[in-house]
Design brief:
Helix content: 25-40%
Radius of gyration: 17 Å
Number of strands: 13
Length: about 240
Amino acid sequence: MRRLALLAAALLLAATPAGATVDAARHDAFWLWAGVPPPAVLAQAKTLYILQGQIDPAPRGAGGPARMIAQGIAVPRLREGEVWLAYRAHTLRWPPQILPTILAQARRWKQEGNPVVGIQIDFDARTRHLQEYAAFLRELRAQLPADYRLSITGLMDWGSNADPEAINQLRDVVDEVVVQTYQGRHTIPTYRSYLPRIARLTLPFRIGLVQDGEWEASDALAASPWFRGYVVFLLKP
């Protein structure tokens, strides 16, 4: 089984040639964020992470609870692959009404026949706050329907600066981590130095790339039985 897993990982890595820029047409998993017109490559998508909302704290000085701002595309009809509804979070202090709102959105997508498999939380949890984030995710997981998977994004420095136990404890909470190798529209210049440590993660993970960004495939990733491939963040033309 391990040999098969390594072979599968090697094939995934081959999708992006060493030293190349990220060509979305060579991939089949994508983030579709607000303001990005659905491009032609979505026809080949097997996995889509589609932004549906942003959770913001109350404006400074205004008081009150955090709120969710609806974002992203309207409910389409997607018949193939897997759909994750993504939520950009700027706070973990969610009032009680936010999760029911998310679940209601998911039900609408499913009622249109879309293959929704779960939700993704996009939150920039700094390494020193991983314990707090893990507690939030554990509580969120307990409230999700049993047939919903939970995905999160992760920062590259988790693999080098975090307590390994703080990351490993997420294995029983989330179904995957997608580690982002970019900021804004560009690949982080030092990304290569993080990859060997990221490859030591012991829970399912993907690597997030930015469309047209720099990327050089990593042998360390190919050797990991936990590596599940790439997700490309699509950019506005």
